[in-house]
Amino acid sequence: MRILITGGGGFLGQKLASRLAGLGAVDNREISQIVLADVQEPAEVPSRVPVRAMVADISKPDDVARLFEQAPDLVFHLAAVVSGAAEADLDLGLRVNMAGTLNLLNAARQSAGSTGRAPMFIYASSVAVHGGEAPQTVVDGVELNPQSSYGTQKAIGELLLQDFSRRGLVDGRGLRLPTVTIRPGKANAAASSFMSSIFRDTLQGNAAVCPVSPDFPVWHTAPRTVVDNLIHATTIPADAFGPNRNLNLPGRTDTIGDMIAAMTRIAGPEAERRIRWQPDPAIEKIVMGWRGHFAPHKALSLGFSADRSFEDSVRFFLEDDIETPQGS
Amino acid sequence: MRILITGGGGFLGQKLASRLAGLGAVDNREISQIVLADVQEPAEVPSRVPVRAMVADISKPDDVARLFEQAPDLVFHLAAVVSGAAEADLDLGLRVNMAGTLNLLNAARQSAGSTGRAPMFIYASSVAVHGGEAPQTVVDGVELNPQSSYGTQKAIGELLLQDFSRRGLVDGRGLRLPTVTIRPGKANAAASSFMSSIFRDTLQGNAAVCPVSPDFPVWHTAPRTVVDNLIHATTIPADAFGPNRNLNLPGRTDTIGDMIAAMTRIAGPEAERRIRWQPDPAIEKIVMGWRGHFAPHKALSLGFSADRSFEDSVRFFLEDDIETPQGS
Fold first, then answer.
1. What is the mean pLDDT of residues B29-39?
2. How far apart are CA B111 and CA B170, in angstroms?
3. Do B133 and A167 touch (CB under 8 A)?
4. Same domain, A305 and A224
5. Which residues in chain A touch residue B142, judged by CB atoms under 8 angstroms apart?
6. Residue B291 placed within a domain
7. pLDDT band, residue A205 (cuts 50/70/90)
8. What is chain B's Cα-based Rg?
9. Taking CB atoms and an 8 Å limit, are A160 and B152 in contact across chains?
10. What kind and span of H or E run contains A84?
């Protein structure tokens, strides 16, 4: 089985590749190659399975064609212009998040045409597709009414994924990721970036800014859980999705204040003192347009995993990702 | 006020233009010009208001730029590759229904950039956006889960319209049209084409084929009602739409059998005898993916009109559209 991961240089692509390399197989099929694609050369992933890094801009059909030269059996499409950047530059977001996703689906379709097998296509959608007229607790089957360009473009990708799957051109599975925290690495242009930095950076002895109040509820999931769920998505029979290949992943709702308290319980009181509280209307406008409460029954019935506590998420971060332990 | 109508050569574009020309004003603003754009030269519309016909392919940005040279204040975007054709040719549908709509929105955005006024943009969406996991009676706020490429592309247009409106680039209003019957003119590649031909053609002495059974429920609206509602959409304050510029228009649910009985009550028993009943799995697959029952509360609260009876629709057809009366 040949695997292509777009956004392969990002924290999630790297974690997913490491996990897949460790497993050596997906759904009982041996992995023969993992291609990590990104706009900049992805970092190496230690692996017994051959891992190939490729530089590609998914908004360019020729770049995408190169990614499909070896006809991947399984695509994880994680690459995206993140929420803050897509809001700042509409054309960039449309080019990468909308046209880029269509380019990948079209390449998969062409690949299916030559190999006779529709590739499986796992698509990372987002909590950001929900907002506006959506109820305060998002149940399955709620109209996608995104209030950001990022959420809009992710929702368009979902519709394309569904239609290409319905037509048998790909075997798509679209997963709406809750906010992923605690992310390793550096802050980025995602409006949700602070939801990691107030833990990640303070646990490593650095300051962080929280632009929303402690009672702000976050629908979140840990990187380890997301990797579990991305891989679980490959094991579900296509028919089990019914007529809709896109779903809300499980996660947890906690307020920022509760999450900080959990961090304190696991790692002591030092980290919290490094948080500076400073409202930011631009960030508030985006993240308050999202929803903090979900009832993802379909995903749970399909065996996707939910996070059990934010304490777990803090532990996972300390086990998997910390570079400079607190107090060092 | 300058008005641009895409799909201006279609039956709806022609009827809308005639009505606007007759009114001479929209929302108390005098109409100075109507541009009718279509891929083939639109027919002339008798009018005191200057009406200009333009040939343009909306999938080509240069063609679209020409349509916006005179900075229309109000755009009715009716042009589309219809359902059967979009199902037969995925790329054509994506090019016209998805990229074409984006081209128009981008041209409107550029126009807003130079004039300082975001054009009003009325978008004809469709009942075809609903299906799949949607409940049997579609209420407002239901996830769009189209089961056709046409419905998918219309839903993508809605998302783009909403995002461009949220950003203040256009003042968008997206209306999901029920099946429009009785349409004048010729049969087309829409899967719903039979829903007009079994009335239109038989009332004019010709045969027609019905590919579904008499108990098939149709969510429908008359051309006259659609024109009423397209124009009503221009009179609603933007704020009244809230965070979602797209809505289900009112219509009526009747079974094919009830509609035929209504035709017989108005026009006598001859027409029904010209219907041949012949199942067509390809058409059934598309139209049975749609929904026949709706509860369009938001549209009703915003003052959009519902059809009162299918008898009315038959009368409207006889008054407005018949070319060869039955028995002549």
1. 97
2. 10
3. no
4. no
5. 141-143
6. no
7. very high
8. 19
9. yes
10. helix A83-88
Q: What is the pLDDT of residues B76-118, one digit of tens each?
A: 999 999 988 999 999 999 999 999 999 999 999 999 999 999 9
Distance of residue B128 Cα from the nearest chain A Cα, in angstroms:
13
Grouping H, G, I as helix, E, B as strand and the rest as coil, residue A295 is strand
Six token digits for residue B86? 């979009």
Q: Residue B182 above 90 pLDDT? A: yes
Give residue for tokens 């023969």: A32
More confident residue, A324 or A69: A69
pLDDT in tens, A117-153: 999 999 999 999 999 999 999 999 999 999 999 999 9
Please tell me whether residues A55 and A154 are part of one structural domain: yes
Do A53 and A127 lie in a common domain?
yes
CA A79 to chain CA centroid, Å, is 9
Tokens of B216: 């098939």
CA distance A50 to B123: 50
* B186 pLDDT above the threshold of 90: no
> Average of pLDDT values for B149-175?
98
Which of A230, A248, A266 is where one domain is finished? A248
Same domain (yes/no): A211, A228: no
E strands along chain A, which residues?
2-6, 25-26, 29-30, 33-38, 51-55, 74-77, 120-126, 137-139, 171-177, 179-180, 208-210, 217-221, 246-248, 252-255, 275-277, 293-295
Whether A131 and B243 lie within 8 Å, measured CB to CB: yes
Residues 6+ away with beta carbon under 8 Å from B62: none
Structural domain containing residue B105: 2-178+221-248
Is residue B215 domain-resident?
no
Find tokens 């998969």 and name the residue. A108
Same domain, A212 and A132: no
Establish if B137 belongs to a structural domain: yes
Mean pLDDT of A158-187: 96
Final residue in a domain of this structure, among A231, A248, A265:
A248
How far apart CA A78 and CA A124 sit, in angstroms, is: 5
Residues of B designated as active site: 150
Using a CB-CB distance cutoff of 8 angstroms, which residues of chain A are in contact with residue B301?
Answer: none
Number of domains in chain A: 2
Same domain, A36 and A79: yes
pTM, two decimals, is 0.96
Measure the CA angle with vertex B209, ends B204 and B312; round to 5°: 50
* Cβ partners under 8 Å of residue A88, min gap 6: A189
Token pair for B164: 């461009």
Q: B144 vs A145: CB contact, 8 Å cut-off?
A: no
- Tell whether the model's pLDDT for residue A324 goes beyond 90: no
| 3-class SS of residue B29 | strand
Q: Is residue B49 part of a domain?
A: yes
Both A214 and A225 in one domain: the answer is no
Q: What percent of chain A has a predicted confidence (pLDDT) above 70?
A: 98
HEC readout, B233-250 = HCCCCHHHHCCCCEEECC
% of chain B at pLDDT higher than 90 = 90
For B289, nearest residue in chain A (alpha carbons): A243
Q: What is the pLDDT of residues A245-273, one digit of tens each?
A: 999 999 999 999 999 999 999 999 999 99
CATH code at A230?
3.40.50.720
